[in-house]
Design goal:
alpha+beta, Rossmann fold, 2 domains, 4-stranded antiparallel β-sheet, 4 helices
Amino acid sequence: MNSIAVKDLEKTYKGAIQPTLQGLSFAFGEGKIAGLLGPNGAGKTTTISILCGLVRRDGGDVRIHDLPQDEAHREQLKKLIGIVPQQIALFPQLTAMENLIYFGNLYGYKGKGLRTKVEHYLELFGLEKAANKEVHKFSGA
């Protein structure tokens, strides 16, 4: 099973001279980490925004864990995929742990289960020692 499968993705913004995306296809298997690389204007942000359900595609098929990226599956998909914007989107005065708990709550996670999940991911990414550090004190913030 593919985690993400995109076939013939198309998007043309209103007033654009040419499509932003045309015929884009790719698939990522379960457990893979991947990135989109390309010059400004290549459609990277548009592609990610479509995957996350923030922008509607004009054509093609998008599936995440075999669920179609459509209105009927929007809530299910919100629990499976997210986006890390180029600009910082965290509360600088909160700690890493507090930010993750806050955003977890927005997605319906609660209590001990949420805290366990946050601790797991902090450890997975080697950030457990920074869990109680305020975000504005991180390098690059």
